[in-house]
Write a structure and sequence with these properties.
Number of helices of chain A: 10
Largest interface: A-B, 34 and 35 residues
Helix content of chain A: 25-40%
Number of domains of chain B: 1
Structural class of chain A: alpha/beta
CATH architecture of chain B: 3-Layer(aba) Sandwich
Distance between the termini of chain B: 36 Å
Distance between the termini of chain A: 16 Å
Strand content of chain A: 15-25%
Strand order of the largest sheet of chain A: 2-1-3-4-6-5
Strand order of the largest sheet of chain B: 2-1-3-4-6-5
Oligomer: heterodimer
Number of strands of chain B: 6
Number of helices of chain B: 11
CATH architecture of the largest domain in chain A: 3-Layer(aba) Sandwich
Largest sheet of chain B: 6 strands, parallel
CATH class of the largest domain in chain A: Alpha Beta
Helix content of chain B: 40-55%
Largest sheet of chain A: 6 strands, parallel
Shape of chain B: globular
CATH superfamily of chain B: Thiamin diphosphate (ThDP)-binding fold, Pyr/PP domains
Strand content of chain B: 5-15%
Order of helices and strands of chain B: HHEHHEHEHEHHEHEHH
CATH topology of the largest domain in chain A: Rossmann fold
Order of helices and strands of chain A: HEEHEHHEHEHEEEEHEHEHEH
Radius of gyration of chain B: 18 Å
CATH class of chain B: Alpha Beta
C-alpha cells in the first residue's frame, strides 16, 4: 500500500501537468527535498512554468492574485502553514478587492498548496495547524487532504477552478500509509465526504482529524455501535445536510477537530444539530482550552470511554481507553 | 493660436489641462460634501499621469495606488464615470461598487488599485508574469510612492521582477509625503538608484513636470520593460491638495484651491500646469484652456 505523501504527490503532479499555461511556483519546489517530497515529479504544464522563487512570501501571495487577474491558473506551494501568515495582506485584502470586481468567473485560478507542520517537532513558531482559521478571515475555501479519496476529489476539481483556495497536507501523515476508506458520498464542492453509514452514532471530523475518526469508528464498532463517518472541509456556504440528516437518525453526534484554534466550526455543526434535533446528544472532541505550543508530539487524544459514556452507547470496557492518534 | 502646435504636443497639453480642470471640479464637489467616501485628489500629478497614459500601448496594463484619480481620468478620457463612482452611483465606472481607492477599469487596462501601501507591487508582478506566460507583448506599469516604497514588498518586487525578467515598470511618485509626514520626519533618505543598481535594474529619475519630456521617457522605459527588462523610475511630484479630506498637520487646505483662480495652482516648476504655460506661452495656453473648459467631453467615455 502506498504512503500518504507518495499518493498525494502523484495526484498533485498528475493534476497540475494537465493545466494549460499553469504557473507552479514556490521556494525550493524543484530542488533539494522538493518541499519534503510534496512537489517531486512536477512537470511543466503545456505553455506554463515551474518557478523556483526566492524567499518573499508576501510577494508570492500577491503574485498569485496578479496571475488570477491575467486569467491564468497558478499553484503556490508552501512548506509550512505558518509561512502563509506573512501574506495575510493579500490573502484577505487583495482577494476582497478582486472579488468585488464584476466578473470573478472570468478570472483565473489560484491555489496555495501548503504543508501543515502538525507532527509537533518543529517548535512553537511552526505549530499553527488550523486551516479553517486562515480560511475564515476572508471566507476562502480550504481543503485538508486526509486520504486518497478526498485528495483525488479535491485536486481533480479545485486546482483549475476559478477563484482562490487553500489545499493542505498533514506532515504527521507523511510517513503513514495512505488511508483509502470506502466513499459513500462526496459533495461536488468537496466540502463534505461520507465514509460509512451507521445507525447509532454520527461522527464528523474537521481539519485533519479523520484518521482519529476512523479509529474511533472502529472502536465503537468493536463495542457494537455502528456509526456514520464524515469528514468536513472549510467551504463557505457549505451544505451540512447529509450530516444533520444522519444525526437526526442516530440522535448522537460526535464532532472532532484536531486544530489548535480557539474557535472550531465543529461547534457550529454541533449547535446546528442540537437545535434541529431536540434531545439529540452531542460530544465535541477538541484539544480543549489548554494547548501545548511547545515542542511535543501532536497526539490528539480521543477518549472512547468518555465518548461512549456521554452518548449512552457501548459499554466502557476496562483498558479500552485508547490513544487513537495516528501511528507515526 | 493653439492650432500652431504639433498635434501630439497639443494633445498632451490638452490632456494635462483637462486633468487639472476635472480635478478642480472634483475639488469643488468635495467642498460641497458630495462624496461620502475618501477621495485622494492628485492636483499636481497631471504631467506624469498623462505621460503614463500616453506611453501605454493597447496590451499594456496599469496598476494603481489609492491616489489614482488622475490616471483613471486619463485612461477613461472622461470625468463622469469617475465622479459617479465616487458618488457610488450605478453609472460609476464600476457601478459604484469599488469607490475610489480600489477602482479599476479593465477595459482600459487598469487592472488593480490598492489602498494598502506596497500591496499592489506583488499583484503587478503577477500581472507581468501573466504577460510573459501568455506572450502578450505588453508591459505592466505599477504606481507606488515614497511612502509605499518603505514597505517590504517594494524590495521583494524588485528582486522578483529582475530575477524572472518580467515586463514591469515600477513608477515611484515621490511627493515627499506619507499622509502628513515628510520623508525627513519619518525615515532616512533612500537612494532608489542604488537599490536598483544592487539588483541590476535600470533606473531613471524624472523631475521638472514637463509632460513632453516625461512622455518620451516613459515610452523608452515601457519599451525596455516590454523586452523583459524590468525598470524603475522615480518622479518628483508636488501634491497640492490634502491627503484625503481634513488631515491634522497637513499644511494645505484644498478649500483654498478654487476653480475661480484658474487652472494654475502655484506659479512654480512644481506645478505642471504652470510649466505648460511657460512652454506654450500665455496666448496659446489660454486658448487651450478655453478649449478644455468648452469641451469637457472631447473623447467618448470608455469604461469597464
Amino acid at each position: 500500500m502506498a504512503g500518504y505523501l507518495a499518493v498525494v504527490n502523484q495526484l498533485i503532479a498528475s493534476a497540475t501537468a494537465r493545466i494549460p499555461n499553469a504557473v507552479l511556483y514556490g521556494e525550493n519546489i524543484n530542488t533539494g527535498s522538493h518541499l519534503c517530497g510534496m512537489t517531486r515529479n512536477l512537470t511543466v504544464p503545456p505553455g506554463g512554468r515551474i518557478l523556483n522563487v526566492g524567499n518573499c512570501e508576501p510577494t508570492h501571495c500577491g503574485l498569485g492574485f496578479g496571475l488570477m487577474l491575467s486569467g491564468l491558473t497558478s499553484v503556490l506551494f508552501m512548506k509550512q502553514l505558518d509561512f502563509t501568515v506573512l501574506g495575510m495582506d493579500h490573502l484577505i485584502s487583495t482577494y476582497h478587492v478582486i472579488r468585488a470586481h464584476r466578473r470573478l468567473d472570468a478570472m483565473g485560478s489560484f491555489t496555495i498548496c501548503v504543508i501543515v507542520c502538525d507532527q509537533g517537532f518543529q517548535g512553537p513558531q511552526s505549530s499553527f495547524n488550523a486551516l479553517g482559521d486562515l480560511c475564515s478571515q476572508a471566507r476562502v475555501p480550504g481543503y485538508t487532504l486526509t486520504n486518497q479519496q478526498d485528495a483525488a476529489h479535491v485536486l481533480e476539481r479545485q486546482l483549475n477552478a476559478p477563484g482562490f483556495r487553500f489545499v493542505a497536507l498533514s506532515q504527521r501523515l507523511f510517513p503513514t500509509e495512505c488511508l483509502m476508506p470506502d466513499l459513500v458520498y462526496a459533495s461536488e464542492d468537496s466540502s463534505v465526504f461520507q465514509y460509512s453509514t451507521g445507525e447509532e452514532a454520527t461522527i464528523a471530523c474537521f481539519n485533519f482529524s479523520l484518521p482519529e475518526g476512523l479509529a474511533l469508528q472502529a472502536t465503537l464498532l468493536a463495542r457494537g455501535v455502528t456509526s456514520s463517518l464524515f469528514s468536513v472541509n472549510h467551504v463557505p456556504a457549505h451544505d451540512w445536510g447529509k450530516i444533520t440528516q444522519s444525526a437526526a437518525q442516530t440522535r448522537r453526534l460526535i464532532v472532532m477537530d484536531d486544530s489548535k484554534s480557539g474557535y472550531s466550526p465543529a461547534y457550529e455543526l454541533l449547535h446546528e444539530v442540537t437545535r434541529a434535533c431536540p434531545g439529540a446528544r452531542g460530544v465535541a472532541v477538541t484539544r480543549g482550552a489548554e494547548v501545548d505550543f511547545g515542542v511535543s508530539p501532536e497526539a490528539f487524544q480521543v477518549d472512547a470511554d468518555a465518548i461512549c459514556s456521554q452518548l449512552g452507547v457501548g459499554k466502557a470496557a476496562a483498558g479500552l481507553r485508547a490513544s487513537l492518534s495516528v501511528a507515526r | 493660436m493653439a492650432r500652431e502646435l504639433p498635434d501630439n504636443t497639443r494633445q498632451l497639453a490638452f490632456e494635462v489641462l483637462r486633468l487639472r480642470y476635472w480635478q478642480l471640479l472634483l475639488n469643488e464637489d468635495l467642498k460641497k460634501k458630495r462624496f461620502a467616501i475618501p477621495i485622494h485628489l492628485a492636483i499636481g500629478h497631471e504631467a506624469i499621469a498623462v505621460a503614463a497614459h500616453t506611453a501605454m500601448e493597447p496590451l499594456d496594463q496599469l496598476v494603481l495606488t489609492h491616489r489614482n484619480v488622475a490616471y483613471h481620468m486619463a485612461r477613461a478620457g472622461a470625468l463622469e464615470p469617475i465622479a459617479d463612482e465616487y458618488a457610488l452611483a450605478p453609472t460609476g465606472a464600476s457601478g459604484g461598487r469599488l469607490g475610489s481607492m480600489n477602482l479599476v477599469n479593465p477595459a482600459r487596462g487598469v487592472m488593480y488599485a490598492s489602498s494598502i501601501l506596497g500591496n499592489n507591487l506583488p499583484v503587478a508582478c503577477g500581472l507581468a508574469l501573466g504577460q510573459q506566460v501568455q506572450q502578450r507583448g505588453g508591459c505592466v506599469i505599477v504606481l507606488t510612492g515614497d511612502g509605499a516604497m518603505e514597505e517590504g514588498p517594494f524590495y521583494e518586487s524588485l528582486v522578483f521582477a529582475q530575477s524572472h525578467h518580467v515586463p514591469l515598470l515600477i513608477m515611484v511618485e515621490n511627493n515627499n509625503c506619507s499622509m502628513a509626514s515628510t520623508i525627513e520626519q519619518r525615515r532616512c533618505p533612500i537612494a532608489i538608484n542604488r537599490l536598483c543598481e544592487a539588483v541590476g535594474m535600470p533606473f531613471l529619475p524624472l523631475e521638472g513636470n514637463e509632460v513632453m519630456a516625461y512622455t518620451a521617457a516613459l515610452r523608452r522605459m515601457c519599451a525596455t520593460a516590454r523586452q523583459g527588462q524590468p525598470a524603475c523610475l522615480e518622479v518628483a511630484v508636488t501634491t497640492f491638495n490634502q491627503h484625503a479630506g481634513p488631515t491634522p498637520g497637513w499644511p494645505t487646505d484644498p478649500k483654498r484651491i478654487s476653480l475661480d483662480n484658474g487652472l494654475i495652482v502655484e506659479p512654480s516648476v512644481n506645478d505642471p500646469v504652470f510649466v505648460l504655460q511657460q512652454q506654450l506661452g500665455v496666448p496659446r495656453f489660454d486658448a487651450l484652456a478655453e478649449d478644455v473648459i468648452a469641451q469637457r467631453r472631447l473623447e467618448p467615455t470608455v469604461v469597464g
